[in-house]
Amino acid sequence: MMINTTQFEFSHGRKPRGFGSWAFTINGEMKWFNQATYGEALKKAKAYARETFKGQFVTITVEP
User: Fold this and answer.
1) Which of 17, 58, 63, 64, CA to CA, is 20 to 30 A from 11?
2) What's the pTM?
């Protein structure tokens, strides 16, 4: 599993952190996790990816 923060960092000038609404693209599929810290939202994204894409390499992109 790979976490890509490049687009977020380019847009915001910093690594993702804090509380808010978070959007991720998981193997080309957009997912939103509202009102959570970045860590909590990423944890949910990883759980979703493990369940949905069992046995596949997964790229999770943090959207700006």
Assistant:
1) 58
2) 0.90
